[in-house]
Automatic annotation (TrEMBL):
Gene Ontology MF annotations: hydrolase activity, acting on ester bonds
Keyword 4Fe-4S (UniProt): no
Membrane spanning residue stretches: 7-25
Protein keywords: Glycoprotein, Hydrolase, Lipid degradation, Lipid metabolism, Membrane, Signal, Transmembrane, Transmembrane helix
One GO BP annotation of this record: lipid catabolic process
Naturally occurring in which organism (per UniProt): Tetranychus urticae
Name the record gives this protein: Lipase
Partial AB-hydrolase lipase domain segment(s): 42-103
Domain AB hydrolase-1: 135-410
Active-site residue numbers: 203, 374, 406
Family listed: Belongs to the AB hydrolase superfamily. Lipase family.
A Pfam family: Abhydrolase_1
InterPro entries registered for this protein in UniProt: AB_hydrolase_1, AB_hydrolase_fold, AB_hydrolase_lipase, Lipase_euk
Gene: 107363910
Length: 445
């Protein structure tokens, strides 16, 4: 490769980075509102709503240390606490556990009764908060907020230093599937002494569970139910701009060779706003990049844009994770990381990376909630996933609003009404189902 080629590859790679980061970061007015949630991390957010919390450091089999936050409802006595059903909430790409705590300024701790979980969502008079983490804690669930390796809360390892050892960043969602997810599940079940837990994922948070259930179907016994918000596995029909970027010759190769951390997105945003938009007003700049984003601005509380943006600073992942998505966009498959022919042969015993086999999933408790207008989890890609599933879905729910997009599951103003009531119902139906199976087993004895 001559120098000029290299230069272009480099420029294009940067372009992919920019496109990606823009797609996951909300843009809006620049003025500072001084909302207290802007300066809060997960721990502060939890205590600001009157809850307590525990941080658990979960060490994975490959030595990464994940920072996991457990929300404690102070109105539940210690003895009662161990009876609460555990639910893990798993964020998506370039995100963190705070995603489920910041939608609205409410969600204050309130007394609960585990029996309430079996009430239909409409019968219940709770604080109808749009913050899923607080909502579930106020419904007497034992809520665990996961953080994927490499994000702000999980930049930790038993021997590697993420700031100094580049090797730390040699991972993609393959490792989240092979280690983070099963290790976290086993950890939570060990602590709570439950046999199974509920799992709610958004976007990449669903991809890693579909991956795990494909690779290790026995985890279907431990995950009941799996609720997938904006499910993603196949990405061949993702937003055209991202497809275009991933297809630029040499770009993914350059990024793979570069490796490292997909860094502070706010810095990249700031630099590119200046670079791309030049002397234009920020507003017209927003309009320019709007078509790239996976959410609907008119549906979110505009007064909270600065909170959403500031939380985006406490995220992070590896460049390889982005490259992995790009590879699957190009190959239109749900496959493992492509290291190139030579290294693939060493790692996988063949020239191509193996595919995740959706058809191996045997869980009968998979619920999907999706939007018609999802530009990052395209309906055509979802159809492909559903077609490959050999088991019936526990729930197949299309959000009635035809404009519903990928990140509307995080930012939309009517999350409680549109999404969370359905989530609560699925959790309830799952428990009723488990109860039935349990009494069926007792009857047999
Ligand atoms: C909800 O409120 C109504 C009327 O205020 C009351 O009749 C009902 O019992 C309440 N339900 C619960 C679960 O507290
Ligand atoms: C890294 O993990 C250890 C526990 O193994 C914990 O004590 C430490 O606070 C963590 N560091 C960070 C920066 O999260
Ligand atoms: C379960 O937890 C106990 C202590 O709480 C620990 O000694 C044990 O190693 C854990 N087992 C697994 C499989 O994590
Ligand atoms: C799914 O397959 C695994 C591994 O073969 C098995 O242990 C488990 O019982 C199966 N689960 C269901 C729900 O059939
Ligand atoms: C980690 O990735 C870099 C490229 O980013 C590569 O040079 C290095 O050999 C990799 N290390 C391991 C242990 O795979
Ligand atoms: C919108 O956000 C602002 C700022 O956080 C807040 O004061 C207001 O109550 C929010 N509106 C709703 C409907 O949650």
């Amino acid at each position: 490769m001559n120098l000029l080629n290299f230069y272009f590859c480099y420029l294009f790679s940067i372009q992919i980075l920019i496109l990606t980061v823009y797609s996951f970061t909300p843009v809006g007015s620049e003025e500072v509102t001084g909302d207290p949630d802007e300066k809060r991390d997960i721990a502060d957010l939890i205590t600001s709503r009157g809850f307590d919390y525990e941080v658990h450091y979960v060490t994975t089999q490959d030595s990464y240390i994940l920072g996991v936050y457990r929300i404690i409802n102070p109105f539940v006595s210690e003895n009662e606490r161990e009876k609460l059903r555990p639910v893990v909430i798993q964020h998506g790409f370039l995100s963190s556990g705070s995603t489920f705590l910041i939608n609205s300024p409410d969600g204050f701790a309130s007394p609960c009764d585990p029996a309430d979980q079996l009430l239909a969502s409409n019968d219940y008079n709770d604080t109808h908060t749009n913050n899923l983490g607080f909502l579930l804690a106020n419904r007497c669930y034992d809520v665990w907020l996961a953080n994927s390796r490499g994000n702000h809360y999980s930049r930790n390892h038993t021997t590697l230093n993420p700031d100094k050892d580049k090797e730390f960043w040699n991972f993609s969602f393959d490792e989240m599937i092979a280690y983070d997810t099963p290790n976290l599940i086993d950890y939570v079940l060990n602590v709570t002494k439950f046999e199974s837990l509920g799992w709610i994922g958004h976007s990449q948070g669903t991809l890693i569970m579909f991956g795990l259930l494909s690779e290790k179907p026995a985890y279907s016994l431990k995950v009941k139910p799996f609720i997938a918000l904006a499910p993603v596995t196949y990405v061949g029909n993702i937003l055209l701009a991202l497809r275009f970027a991933a297809a630029i010759p040499g770009a993914l190769w350059t990024l793979r060779k570069a490796g490292g951390e997909l860094g502070d997105s706010s810095t990249i945003i700031k630099t590119t706003s200046q670079f791309v938009c030049g002397r234009w007003q920020p507003k017209s700049c927003d309009n320019l990049v709007y078509p790239l984003e996976g959410y609907t601005p008119s549906m979110m509380n505009q007064s909270r844009v600065n909170v959403f943006k500031s939380q985006q600073k406490l995220t992070g992942t590896s460049v390889w994770n982005l490259v992995h998505f790009g590879q699957n966009v190009n190959s239109r498959s749900f496959a493992k990381f492509d290291f190139g022919t030579i290294e693939n042969k060493i790692r996988y015993n063949g020239p191509y990376p193996p595919k995740y086999k959706i058809s191996q999933i045997n869980s009968t408790q998979v619920a999907i909630l999706y939007g018609k207008a999802d530009r990052l989890g395209d309906p055509k890609d979802l159809q492909k996933l559903v077609k490959e599933l050999k088991v019936p879905l526990f729930k197949d729910y299309e959000i009635p609003n035809p404009k519903w997009d990928h990140l509307d599951f995080i930012y939309a103003e009517d999350l409680y009404k549109t999404v969370h009531t359905v989530v609560l119902d699925v959790l309830r139906e799952s428990q009723i189902e488990l109860e039935k199976q349990r009494s069926g087993q007792i009857a047999k004895i």
